[in-house]
Amino acid sequence: MTSHVHIPARTPLPRLLATTALAAAFSAAAQYADLDRADWKEDAPPPPPAYSVQQLIEIEMPRSSTVEMGIDPETITLNHDTGVVRYVVVARGPSAVNATYEGIRCATAEYRVYARQVQGGEWSPNGDNTWKTMRGQSGVVVQHPYRLARDGLCVGPGVRQTVRDMVRELKSGSQSLYR
Fold first, then answer.
1. Which residue has the higher pLDDT, 117 or 30?
2. Region 119-135 average pLDDT
3. 99, part of any domain
4. If you average pLDDT over residues 113-132, what whole number do you get?
5. Is residue 74 within 8 Å of 52, Cβ to Cβ?
6. What span, in angstroms and rounded, lies between the C-alpha atoms of 130 and 21?
7. Buried-most residue among 35, 37, 79, 107 (CB within 10 A)?
8. What per-residue confidence (pLDDT) applies to 34?
9. Phi, psi at residue 111, to the nearest 5°?
10. Residue 134 maps to a domain
């Protein structure tokens, strides 16, 4: 008599990974669910941090772009109370190297520029203090906040738990769940 052994089917690895990513997104979304309220207040942004062009993580740009952009991972900060991620982005073109100090709100899919630096000069505060949508930006140079959110700073409408997680995701080149 032949005995049959039942071996339970294993969950395919891609399904398990997708389930894990979805659970993380829901967890992050729940944690930051109230950060899109109308009475939300931003904390005072600190001055722009020092940055290095030697350790930039490249930001994907259209092939037709003559500008290369990167984020300095040492400048990324996260405020869990407000859900704001701040960082310095460096844009390098054929004739210039400029930097911007920016912030992203994953909960509302918005970004803002705090200050600009042209050719290594002094930082100039940005006169426009409004948050702008990351979606639908048509200019090549203003598409990077969405790419940063998608590529590692955000998980859905929430921010990653640590800056180390953000840097790991930005370096991996994978795209997370985002609006």
1. 117
2. 91
3. yes
4. 94
5. yes
6. 32
7. 107
8. 52
9. -140, 165
10. yes
